[in-house]
Amino acid sequence: MLMKFLMLLLVQAIAVFIYCCGFFPQKNVLRGDAHFLLEPVLQNQSEPVFDKLVLVIIDALRSDFLFDQSMSNFTFVHSLLNSGEAWGYTAFSNPPTVTLPRLKGITTGSTPNFLDAILNVAEDDSSSNLKDQDSWLKQFAIHGKKMRFFGDDTWLKLFPLEFFQEFEGTNSFFVSDFEQVDWNVTRHLPDQLTTQRDWDVLILHYLGLDHIGHKGGARSIFMPAKQTEMDSIVKRLYENVDQNTLICIMGDHGMNDAGNHGGSSPGETSAGLVMMSKKLAQFPAPKAQRNISLPLTLPLQNDEVSYDYLTKVQQVDFVPTLASLFNVPIPKNNVGIIIRDFLPLLNTEVASIKVKENYHQMASLLGQNADINVEQMDQLFMLMKNLQNVLTKSATNYKYPILALGFGILVIATAVSLCFATTTMRLSPPFFLTLLMSLLLGLSTFGSSFVEEEHQIWWWVVTGVLLLSQFYLRTSFRTHFICLACVRLIRAWNNSGQKNTYNNTVFDILKANPQLQWYLNVLTIFVVGMRGTLGDTLSFIISFSLSGLCVSYKVSWAVVNHENVPGWLKELAFKNCLFFTSSDTNVFGEALVPMAQFFFQCVVVSIITKIVALRMGLTRSNIHNCISLFLMFQSPSPNIPLFLIFEVLQSALTQILIDHYSSNDYFISLTSLILQYFTFFQFGGTNSIASVDLSNAYNGVPENYNIYFVGFMMFVSNFAPTIYWSLYKSQFPDMNNHKWRSFAQRKITLLVYHCVVGCFLLAACYVFRSHLFIWSVFSPKLCYFAAWNIFMNLIVECGLESIIVATNNL
């Protein structure tokens, strides 16, 4: 039975992987370099509007950070906007709103490929290199422009190093740092400003503001100071260049209020864009910028915050605009439209040619012949807008044979799994409940709103199952009531889903009441970490030490991030930090990395020690305590008390399952599966890339970034409650009699659910492959499903749990 299950689970994972290979292929692009198509002699002889370009990308610079009265601290930029020396825009950045695909859009003018969102975190990946693809950087290099780059090293992965006469990259994923990462860019400014004759293009990509968002959200207490720092850098640049230099300030994408990005919410897709030069004051400012004073205050639209400040453009429109101003050919794969406000900077004849050139270039992408008789500007811009709408919807070429192969394998695996389940579960109530739940969740994948609000379905599933159990048993009312109270409290803890947010969640209340939060945190860590260790000296010492380390680290992390911590707790943590650093000025900050590394080492050693002790009969305690402490260590501080509720819920459920369901393997596995998904969403997770929490992915990570370690820690921090409930099955004592048989039986429910839902999801992704929400809703859901199959089903459910079962000597 065990081998059958493992083979089916492996086949299922392979099927999903094959389907993803066909669904997320590399996009086909036109190779080669663009040349002037219309009046090439005249265009080559024309003088560019500007001689030099300074491009300052401030990662995750949302539009309101530049333009809003309550959110912006760019006072110098405001003064230039008001004087007409700067023109401002809200630039729509197509999802997925992560750096790699957005940099491709900013430089090539092309639409994003969702695969780039996945490759965005692959530090050593080179498959997204743009060396063979046309871009304005390549055109600048062909035309002899000397370029220098400092900042996010994603640029150095995208473009050949020979493009840059001087460069230095900074790591874009070490989000714990938002000071040094920017100073490493700024420190180059004195030399660059004194040697302006030696370069034509200076590119600076600052990461600190994005890192602050990931750590503390869009309204972090560090945000105003960071904006002021960026504003002073812009001022320094502007005051040291002449009127023939164009300075562009822009965000590659925005962020949501939680500080994350990757999805398609208005905050994530609304990036700020400002073009500034002393020369711009000689021309009429954009209409939306006239007769107003920056910063602005936008009214609510349909009770929602708007991020549409000044004129709204597509972010890819930056590419043909830049190419026209510097008189280089528009890149071949561009889908952007010249920003019309800049045409007066060109003479009338050249401006007309540039617009027609833009139209011909876009038409060629669709294999169409441009209408050469169109002369009216308004008609040209209307035609280009229509072309842009078509081109942005045809971003991917699916590999249909691979899709069919992956889907076919999964259908076969599903049929075999259902046959396997019917022979082992024998059409029992758990089988019908599992099948009904699988069909319900599977059908829901055909609705974009159901995918976005999947947490609602799991809320009704968990409450429905508990009420059905109470109705069936008609006893144990108190225990069932405790379970219902726990799940209601869990539901109230965080904002889940993507459509609606609620005020006064428990998370928000704890953030506003740090004294209460930290008393609960300390209580939870020690109660959960030391559960079942009384009377067992070895386990007591190990658990107490790990609990103390966990509390000390969490307090230190909070202090470094300027959060309020009770004085007595801060003092205790300070004493512990002295063991990890010799610093006299920044004790908490300097101790963070070594303390986290020491904690991880202790967890590994403790697990090994407990396994050996269990086998030798020297201890009764298993390794769940160590794993639970590790999960709490990787969780946001306001979420830690949830584990105390988990313990209460687990105790009540165990009593019900033992007393009334005879520890039935299938009921146990069904309970575990439901709570895995329910708590994942109520912990703050969604089916959007934007909700991926990176704040704890770098615990213990020094400056030498390791993609594999960070990737693992990212999965743990985002799946912490899921891991907790997946291991719940292994704690039932009846596994001692036939533990490997029980281990396999408790996986059948998991297998059936993921096979059935997987078939529906893969079918939905195919049916809606041309849907408006394919990249913002269905593709992220497919990515989460694939990650769940690999990380949870294979690594945790099979790997980690099998270790626990093998060492179980109860």
TrEMBL record:
Localization (cell): Endoplasmic reticulum membrane
Record keyword Transmembrane present: yes
Recorded metabolic or biological pathway in which this protein acts: Glycolipid biosynthesis; glycosylphosphatidylinositol-anchor biosynthesis
Residues in the signal sequence: 1-15
Primary location: endoplasmic reticulum
Membrane-related topology note: Multi-pass membrane protein
Positions of transmembrane segments: 400-420, 432-451, 457-473, 540-560, 598-618, 665-685, 705-727, 748-769
GO cellular component, one term: endoplasmic reticulum membrane
Superkingdom in the source lineage: Eukaryota
Gene Ontology BP annotations: GPI anchor biosynthetic process
Family matches, as Pfam families: Phosphodiest, PIGO_PIGG
Domain (GPI ethanolamine phosphate transferase 2 C-terminal): residue spans on this chain: 395-806
Database matches in InterPro entries: Alkaline_phosphatase_core_sf, Phosphodiest/P_Trfase, PIG-G_N, PIGG/GPI7, PIGG/GPI7_C
GO molecular function: CP2 mannose-ethanolamine phosphotransferase activity
Keyword Membrane belongs to the record: yes
Keywords: Endoplasmic reticulum, Glycoprotein, GPI-anchor biosynthesis, Membrane, Signal, Transferase, Transmembrane, Transmembrane helix
Main function: Ethanolamine phosphate transferase involved in glycosylphosphatidylinositol-anchor biosynthesis. Transfers ethanolamine phosphate to the GPI second mannose.
PANTHER family on file: GPI ETHANOLAMINE PHOSPHATE TRANSFERASE 2, PHOSPHATIDYLINOSITOL GLYCAN-RELATED
Family of the protein in this entry: Belongs to the PIGG/PIGN/PIGO family. PIGG subfamily.
Name this protein carries in UniProt: GPI ethanolamine phosphate transferase 2
Organism: Zygosaccharomyces bailii (strain CLIB 213 / ATCC 58445 / CBS 680 / BCRC 21525 / NBRC 1098 / NCYC 1416 / NRRL Y-2227)
Lineage: Eukaryota, Fungi, Dikarya, Ascomycota, Saccharomycotina
